Amino acid sequence: MKKNYNYTRRKLFLPEYGRHIHEMIDSLMEIEDRHERNRQARAVIAVMGNLNPLLRDTADFTHKLWDHLFIMSDFQLDVDSPYPRPSREELTITPRKLDYTQGRVESKHYGKYVARMIKSLAAIEDPQAVTRAVGNLARYMRAKSYEYNQEHPNNEVIIKDIKRMSEGGIEIDEVALNNLRSDYKQHYMARPQKNYQRQQQQRQQKNRNQPYNRNFQKNNNPYRNSSK
């Protein structure tokens, strides 16, 4: 008995349609009469559409079926299609390889965009515009460094980092940057005292255990309940 396993059969171009649809398309290429071949091709298209009846109302559904018909025939089926016949070159175009957006960041506490802005500032010829931009950028670098390290860096560190990232292309007014103050402030809640939660729970339990006494003041008014 000869066994027919799938690994001995030819590879399916579109496995979602199954092997029977591929065999039907193979039988279409053996029909010599063109008129009969076109009629059988439309019948195969109808069978392919019945596999996904919910997609019949979608746009270009019939167009996709005809394209799949040519793909499963390895672009060798010669029938009259109501749509332009696809080619192997159109469907096998290799997309352009995209560059990775992530890369090595030298100063993670500043971020990669700070280095890009500094490099772009080095190409600007207006010294006043560069000075204003560097001042704002230095203030931002102080804020980001504070978020990352929880401490304000010295202005000398900011100046050194700007020179390093610009490769000496930016003239820095060190006097103006030394007088720079950061507007970044972050409020922290006071750290709770030791055993504060336990003391709070004991105080609440003590209050619940105490009896609830109501102190009423006696009304000694001589005219109380007076009928006069």
Structural class: mainly alpha
Uncertain stretches: 182-192
Number of strands: 0
Cα(first) to Cα(last) distance is 125 Å
Largest sheet: none
Shape: elongated
The share of residues in extended strands comes to: under 5%
> What number is the mean pLDDT?
77
Can you write the helix and strand succession as a string?
A: HHHHHHHHH
Cα Rg:
41 Å
Helix content: 40-55%
In DSSP terms (H or I, runs of 4 or more residues), the helix count works out at 9
Task: Give the helix/strand layout.
Elements: H1 18-28, H2 34-51, H3 61-72, H4 88-91, H5 112-122, H6 127-149, H7 155-166, H8 174-178, H9 196-209
Helix pairs in contact: 1-2, 2-3, 5-6
Which terms summarize this structure?
0% strand; 228 residues; 9 helices; elongated; mainly alpha
Description:
This protein is an all-alpha fold and 228 residues long. The protein has helices at residues 18-28, 34-51, 61-72, 88-91, 112-122, 127-149, 155-166, 174-178, 196-209. The protein is elongated and about 90 Å long. The relative contact order is 0.06.
Short description:
Helices cover 48% and strands 0% of the residues. It is mainly α. It is elongated.
